[in-house]
Amino acid sequence: MDFNFTEEQSMLRDALARYLADRYDFETRRGITRTDAGWQPAVWRAFAEELGILGAAFSEAHGGLGGGAVENMIVMEELGKALVIEPYLETVVVGGGFLKHAGGAAADALIGQIIAGTATCAFAHAEPQGRYNLADLKTTATRDGAGWRLSGHKAVVTAAPWASHLIVTARTGGGQRERDGVSVFLVEKGAAGLTTRDYPTVDGRRASEVYLENVAVGAEALLGNEGNGLPLVERVVDEATAALCAEASGCLKKLHEGTLDYARQRKQFGTPIASFQVLQHRMVDMFMAAEQAVSMTYMATLNLDAEARERAIAVSSAKAFIGKACQSVGQSAIQIHGGMGMTDELAIGHYFKRATLIEGLYGSVAYHLRRCEALSLADAA
Amino acid sequence: MNLEFSADDIAFRDEVRAFIAEAYPAHLRGKMEEGEELSKEDYLAWHRILAAKGWVAPGWPVEYGGPGWTATQRYIWSEELARADTIPILPFGINMVGPVIYTFGTPEQKARFLPPSLSGDIWWCQGYSEPGAGSDLASLRTRAERDGDFYIVNGQKTWTTLGQHADWGFFLVRTDPAAKPQEGISFLLIDMKTPGITVRPIITLGGEHEVNEVWLENVKVPVENRIFHENKGWTCAKFLLAHERTGIAGVARSKRGIERIKAMARAEAGDDGQPLIRDPDFARKIVELEIDLKALEFTELRTLASESAGKGPGPESSLLKIKGTEIQQRITELALEAAGHYGAPYFRGINQDGNAFPIGPDYSRRVAPTYFNMRKTSIYGGSNEIQRNIIAKMVLGL
Questions:
Q1: Which chain B residues in 336-355 lie under 8 Å from chain A, judged by CB atoms?
Q2: CATH superfamily placement of domain A123-228
Q3: Which of A112, B149, B219, B387 could disulfide-link B318, Cβ–Cβ 3.0 to 4.6 Å?
Q4: What residues of B are in contact with residue A202 (Cβ under 8 Å)?
Q5: ipTM beyond 0.90?
Q6: SS3 of A76, please?
């Protein structure tokens, strides 16, 4: 057993942390959320060129640094601490995940562009009717010569306004909610017949409704096997969920630390409010939740290469635990900040908002608890 | 003991229900449902209709313009308002400063301020909290120095709800800095148009402009605008805080909120494609909420009954505040959960006209901002920690 980072991993974390401390302060982020673009392509270029983090989780054969899930975890935790908007999760973890696992010439080429910072991805998967059920798809892909034609409506596709490429799930067979018949496609955002309605999300990021109307793609757009894409989707979504847990860990740490700082300096009744036992205990609960979030993130990350059932139980356990922590730690942070916690001026409220959205991303607490029940209690029944 | 309403009460319920159905303005319908931000005119439109009917201040004594209703009738009234999902009556004049004025004011002050408070001609705001005086309100530092027939007021107030619309404010100011904190405070009514007052918006988590900072710089306030004795303002403040807590349970509104969750859960599909309301996990959360609301409702009814028997609202009302706000917050948590993916879009400033693609169902539009916004309820009006301290000290004698 070894929970230590390698020297390279420590350097990756420190370099990114330093960069974000210097160049990604809260006020800068706020300014960016108010621009039309909503993100900073210059920061993305710095991620690629100055820091080289976009290649950290790709193999050397792909031109990366030879890392994997642990590198994603390290990066995502730091991004969580700085409330970074830019689409690492969507591009490297989700996009990169599909491309790595599916393989093929088109995938390899795009990985190169991701590492270089010239391609960005979004995951056009969820649909208005489907909630968190990964198999609930109405979007269709039908054969058209050697290629395919895609039609459907994808809901709340985060980071889509910034994406050059979309990973789109669609039915090539089977009925809505059947496990069989799901396929995964790589679609350029500019493809004819693809339209989006872009909007901000409550955490200061951007998303789109994505409409596909007979969008033509070539044979090489199919990632993985036709009709048997759901296991691939589940794997990548588990990887993304673990990465999201890492982001949440960073966010929870800041919520906890920010609250501690505030309670130490805020005086009422002639004394810092940190001296009140009722608040001390609440801050201890926040601390314990934040620490255990890190533990659960390690647990999930280190199980990503386990067999599918074990991996799923690990990831869903972590996300269920961390989803609850996002709610309790976030609410406590606001409560202890009092009125100041309610203002848009302080960073704390923005961490709370991001933590709140993370609660529902890639499955709510209820969804992941049910997934754990179905998988881990199946034997008992 | 008896749970039934009397025949008179039922007749009263039918009367007010019919009135609301007829008189509530069509253009305001649905605004609460969608959680839209309300304009000054929205509030005043409904306020004026009720004022004309004589029903805007159900708790006021008849001599000052109250309708003379019993506690049961007032309860029925608030239930019916919530049932119809009307926009709320602003509390600042009706529930806060009004009762202070008719309890502590001079005949001149009553004649000058009560009628326009009822009619809606004065929009009041509250100048209590300061950056350094929140839970510890008595530590407030805004200073009022006597200068002949005036006070000269300097200081800063904060969290002034809807102060951007206010004509007048009621302020707690320090008139004797040498006295013990509670003993050097006075209660002043200040015309918000007086030179030296600056109102600055504070934008909150959901993007709303609901609260403000109010800066006072050499603001001249006539001494005749002081309520009650100099340095005895804390008496008014305590009285007002107790008043503010009655009705803070918000039972009727929470019932409506749960109905709204149920409607969402009928419309939304769960992970298995069945309506979310048939999801046992979600259904259980709704039912637990309903049970806790029932416990709150019957606690409030018992409080109401003892109030009818002549006992004023006591420290027990802290229980209503704590449990009421916890339930209000849980409702917003459930709404956010029910909305699923469509809780994420942020609609402020987004054009939802008929030509654009719609973004999710209407009922999801403000669930996240409302969830953020309702965190305030366990902070304002005396935080829930302070309320627990009050119960520990005043009720349990600890």
A1: 336-337, 340-347, 350
A2: Butyryl-CoA Dehydrogenase, subunit A, domain 2 (2.40.110.10)
A3: B387
A4: 206, 343-346, 368-369, 372
A5: yes
A6: helix
